[in-house]
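ok trying again, last paste got cut off:
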Amino acid sequence: MANYTIIADIGNAIVQRLRDHLVPSIIINTENIGLCTPGDRGDILLGVNLYDIKENQDIVVTDMSPKGEKQLKYPSTFYDLYYMITAYSTSDIKFRAAEDQKILGKVLQVLKDYPSFTAEQLGSELAGSRFVPRIELLQLEQEEKMKLWNVPNVPYRLSLFYKVYPVEIESTRVKEITRVVEFTVRDS
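nice, full thing came through this time. structure:
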């Protein structure tokens, strides 16, 4: 089961996966692939932007689980994370579009070849989870992509949109309980 850091862990795992497969063949330096927003990317050449989080509608757990003998733990909640991945090639203007397309083509290949995450990639907390987060390419219309870009005075750049799900965040709430210690049967 995962705590609240799983959201950051997944973003970092995506970045690491891309670094493992794009550096040095496509992008020279690992530091040029990272988490960023389109409006604040610094020297990032391949940016991973978490743009939305929604509660997962397919997995709803309502059962509490025992925590010791005197407590019940509230159930985990599951979420879907939405990412925009954008290439920001700094090549000469004549080659920039082709370079961006080459980078995004490799991203498509890598994330299709490796669509799920392991406990080692996300930290040992995932080991207790019943669900393994996976990454899936979203099929969005161009108008939706333009709305998601939403960076004033910066023209839209070709981007890939992914969903990572289900992402479990365990509850920290517990309920105190008393166990039955004595039972009496009466004859009528």
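cool. The longest helix spans residues 93-113. The chain has a mean pLDDT of 90.
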